[in-house]
Design brief:
9-stranded mixed beta sheet; 42% helix; alpha/beta; 15 helices; globular; 15% strand
Length: 378
């Protein structure tokens, strides 16, 4: 039950050693003219790695997260790191927000202020939240997992325990990417505690888990789901590896910073950035996540989450009955008919901008959508 204050303080020697490794990168060749068709393009990666070595300042982003109250606690044998930022508004709604892969809680640095103190950001103080933002077990400051079994359901149980320890018996949940799997599971586990769930980029709402689900969709939704299946087949190599043999790739991730950067870019930037109008996450945001994994030695541990969730099963859960809102952004592929098979959807917003990592690519829209959804539940 003990909760300990936490502060990020990476020794300078570790940052110096990182730069030395970047300078000694052994670069592969690349076929002429393939661009991004074979994976992350070499010119893009070399430029980004060069900036990581000579232009990026970790201390700026370390200090930015350290401006928020951070803590660690032990739950079910696992260290759990979390931000706990209370609103100045006494009637604020508690909200637990969960990141995905390859993200960390650094992704939330730009939305915590507007969520906790809307009055100071031109918003309505009635929309305020007390924000709890845990690091997923195995990710960055939560440290590596020490045993198997840390899949969706166990994480949801840990989140319920965390909110109980903090004294919150009625709260909302929000999440993107894997956070959009954990948050609904939390609602199924503790429906009497979770007043509503808001999701962005829910990965289990893009394709059917059973071909029979296609018959439950409209014609347009069915075609979209089929397109999603074709797209995922061409982009899912990294997920297949981590969902089956994560330890094998862990050696490369833990030994080569450029290798880890390229691996993370498989999801952060999975296309030619010059060939889409989708805004990319800022390169500092990408590098902050990669650096957080590097200095904590948890890239391999984070990869295991895919294997653990696969062990839980990718089947379709029954709706929890807890009201659920979805914000889908450009580049997301959520199909409402599929989302409704496992959630009680009461709010749906579709945006023609942003991206899968909405807290980085469309933070203002994400905050506004969270406010709009929870406004209906107070």
């Amino acid at each position: 039950m003990h909760i300990t204050p936490f502060r990020i303080d990476v020794p300078q020697a570790e940052l110096d050693e990182l730069r030395l490794r970047l300078a000694r990168t052994r670069w592969p060749d690349e076929l002429p003219g393939v661009g991004w068709d074979y994976g992350v393009a070499l010119p893009y990666l070399r430029e980004l790695a060069g900036y990581w070595a000579d232009g990026y300042d970790w201390r700026v982003h370390e200090a930015r997260l350290n401006a928020f109250p951070q803590f660690t606690t032990g739950i079910d044998g696992q260290n759990v790191h979390f931000l706990h930022v209370r609103s100045p508004e006494p009637k604020a709604t508690p909200l637990i927000i969960t990141h995905g892969w390859p993200s960390t809680v650094h992704d939330f640095a730009g939305i915590i202020g507007p969520l906790t103190d809307p009055r100071a950001h031109g918003g309505d103080p009635a929309d305020a939240f007390h924000v709890v933002a845990p690091s997923l077990p195995g990710f960055a400051y939560s440290g590596p997992t020490g045993e198997t079994g840390w899949g969706t359901r166990r994480i949801a149980r840990a989140w319920a325990e965390l909110m109980s320890r903090l004294g919150y018996d009625r709260y909302g949940a929000q999440g993107g990417d894997f956070g959009a799997i954990v948050s609904p599971e939390l609602a199924r586990l503790a429906p009497e505690n979770v007043l509503g769930v808001h999701l962005n980029g829910p990965p289990n709402a893009a394709s059917p888990v059973d071909p029979a689900e296609l018959d439950l969709l409209t014609d347009d939704e069915r075609e979209q789901a089929r397109r999603n299946q074709r797209w995922w087949y061409a982009h899912s190599g990294y997920a297949t590896q981590m969902g089956t043999r994560p330890q094998t790739v862990a050696y490369a991730l833990n030994d080569s910073p450029v290798g880890q950067l390229a691996w993370n870019l498989e999801w952060f930037v999975d296309h030619d950035p010059t060939a889409t109008r989708q805004p990319l996450p800022a390169r500092d945001a990408v590098l902050t996540n990669v650096t957080a994994f590097w200095v904590t030695g948890t890239a391999g541990s984070a990869a295991r989450l895919y294997r653990e969730i696969a062990a839980d099963g990718w089947g379709r859960s029954a709706p929890s009955g807890v009201p659920t809102g979805v914000a889908t952004f450009l580049g997301d592929r959520a199909v409402r008919g599929l989302a409704e098979l496992s959630n009680t959807i009461t709010h749906w917003s579709a945006y023609d901008t942003g991206g899968h990592f909405a807290s980085l690519q469309a933070p203002d829209l994400l905050v506004a959508d969270i406010r709009t959804f929870f406004r209906t539940l107070r």
